[in-house]
Each structure stands twice: as C-alpha cells, then as structure tokens.
Amino acid sequence: MDDPEGPDRPGPDADAAKIAEWMEEDFGRAVAEGITNAGDGDDIDDEHEVVEVEILDRERGEVVGTIDTDGNLNTESEALRNVSQEYLEEGIPVLAPTTYENEDGETVHADAEVIVEPGSSGFVRAFVDVLPSPFDCDSEALADLPVHDEE
C-alpha cells in the first residue's frame, strides 16, 4: 500500500487470481483513504455505490461475465470482451432529459446526448442497455439498476 495511486489494475486478460489479488489490495487502500478522509472534514461520496451485475448469454443460457460501476468487466468470453471494449474505453452515449431557456425566455424540454463513463451513476444500466443480442442481464437486476442522473 505504498503506492498512493493504488495497485495497478490488471489487464482484461488477467486470470481470476490476479484480479482477486488486485481487488484485495485496492479495497484495503480505498478503506484506508476513506478513514483518512473521514477525519479531515471532507464529505465522503456516499452516492458512489458500486453495483455489479451478471451478464448472460441468452442463446447459451449461461452467465458469461460481470460488469461493475467502475467498468471492471470480468469475462472469459472473447465476443463479450470485443463488443464491450469501446464502451469501457470511451463511455456510452445516452439521451438525458434537459431543460433550457430559448431566445424568447420559454423553458424548453429536450433530450441531450451525454456520455456515461465507468465510475458514473448509471454506467452499469447504460452498459447493459447497449449490449447486442444475445447478451443481457436478469430482468430483475435490470429493474434495480440506477439510470444516469444528470447533476
């Protein structure tokens, strides 16, 4: 835990043992930072709850991976990894309701495209929504996922 930036995140081809080791190291660092920050008067970000869901392959009828709020994709499926890579690197475009005043001072309600990146509220929901068939997640899990909240 000497590295202030935390341990290096393993690559997408890392085995489960390497990922578990990284998660333990990173979790310990995050807890230590949280304890340190709690005593210095700064507000702790209670809104950033990490959400993880299983990704299903509907054709094969099995779980082929997991994705979490921070964009950590855990899968052995090359197909899932390939369709996910762009979203993990560049974020996911979604339409978010916005309001603004036009030249006449009238309030206009419209949708604006925003990019939801890993680490943002609603990332997991946006990620699952853009996955092509046969990839999906359990409908009950989908209903509980937070959507992007434009702040």
How large is the share of residues in beta strands? 25-35%
Average pLDDT rating: 78
- Number of E strands: 6
User: Separation of termini?
Assistant: 33 Å
Largest beta-sheet details = 4 strands, antiparallel
Helix proportion range? 25-40%
Structural class: alpha+beta
Low-confidence runs of at least 5 consecutive residues: 34-46
The total of helices stands at 4
Overall, the morphology is elongated
Give the radius of gyration.
18 Å
Element-level helix/strand string: HEEEHEEHEH
Structural summary, described in words:
- The chain is of the alpha+beta class.
- It has a domain of 92 residues.
- The chain is 33% helix and 25% strand.
- It has four helices and six strands.
- A four-stranded antiparallel β-sheet has the order 3-2-1-6, covered by helices on one side.
- The protein is elongated and about 60 Å long.
Provide tags for this entry:
alpha+beta; 4-stranded antiparallel sheet; 4 helices; two-stranded antiparallel ribbon; 151 residues
Please describe the topology of this protein:
Elements: H1 16-38, E1 52-57, E2 62-68, E3 73-75, H2 78-90, E4 92-101, E5 107-116, H3 123-130, E6 135-136, H4 139-144
Antiparallel strand pairs: 1-2, 1-6, 2-3, 4-5
Brief characterization of the structure:
This protein is 33% helix and 25% strand. It has helices spanning 16-38, 78-90, 123-130, 139-144; strands spanning 52-57, 62-68, 73-75, 92-101, 107-116, 135-136.
